[in-house]
Amino acid sequence: MLWYRGDASELHQYYTQTDDMMGNAKFWAAESTNGIDFRKIHTGLPAMIIDMLADIIVDSFNKITVSNNDQAQKDWEDIAEDNDFKEIIKQSIIDVFVEHDGAFKISYDTEISKYPIIEFYPGSKVEFERKRGRITAVVFKNHYDKDKGTYVLKERYDKKSVTYKLYKNGNDCNLSDLEETKDLKEIRDNNFMMAIPMMFNKSKKFKGRGQSIIEKKIDAFDSFDEVWSQWIDAIRDNRTHEYIPEDLLPVDNDGNILKPNTFDRRFTKVGSSNSETESDKITRSNSNFDYEGMLQSYITALDLCLQGLISPSTLGIDVKKLDNADAQREKEKATQYTRGKVLDVLEKVIPKVVCVCLMAYDKAQGNLAGDYEATADFKEYANPSFEATVETVSKARPNQNIMSVEKAVDTMYGDSLTKEEKEEEVRRIKEEQRNNRKR
Hints:
alpha+beta; 3 domains; three-stranded antiparallel beta sheet; 13 strands; flat
């Protein structure tokens, strides 16, 4: 979560106060020598990767179809609009990317809405109960900080019931002790679980839990921040320096000598000359900046951060500046693999959320929970352009028509012509073609 939030001060405080059992040799754990200051910069790359992947996946989200039930389809569309479902999906993807796993919670509160309420809890607020490797219950944790202490509400969702337990400073207490929980009603007669877990990768460290997509990249991100921070520090160190004799140093209005700070470093004090043959003078010096070496370090560190997650071109990063269109499309495969893995999960989870919402809506209206089937449809990503497709098909079918005149005219003019004008253009083209054949 710290790496996603991207606050340099938080990263510095955490790593300087944590013993990593490796001598705290990480860049963010390093502290400057007394009197020597250096700047630590966080590039924000983890958040860029996660947000971009989430945007790509959500933008390709097309529609949800409830099979063979027009009324259920309409009910779902109302539920989705009331909950801003697309935004919930986006946030759930980000939460799972950052916090390993999580779960959707379906609840009802008539004071807020007449429709089921969809919420997503990240992994830090969720516990899973398992039996023979299968999730049998999900426990959602809600924290309330009050003057009298800290309360924790645990909502347990299983296939038959929804139950609550409230704790104050770690001890059991009554739901009526807290204003937010006093009106909660338990459910004992359910025949479906109103919680849907979600994880994209399984953790190798914690059995039964998920794994963040950036968990294995922490050291790479640390190194990338170090390379960029060193680059900026080197730019400061390699500015033009003025070596000024002590007698010629600039002073303030009170006659006190000005001291250069770590940012500008405009001048350096040198001793005055007492020689009869030499006079005090200001000299300037330019340092050699190893741009190529810095650039190669930057590209290598960046490649390590992106490997297996996302292609540089997806983030708008051009590190080679020589790639043609085909090479750029090949690079997109890294993004497609990550996207495909997430879609495999979403295509199973989203229909479950839809069906559970519809079943909960039935029960809220006093009816038996119906039996529903839903599908989630996603558009393709990074398809070849229309021009590239036409060129490819033309090569496969030489000297053959691959598009009707009507389609060609519609594609060429789009909305710039009316339907009648397009029909007239089609008529003229066909007439010209007939005349050419007669000749």
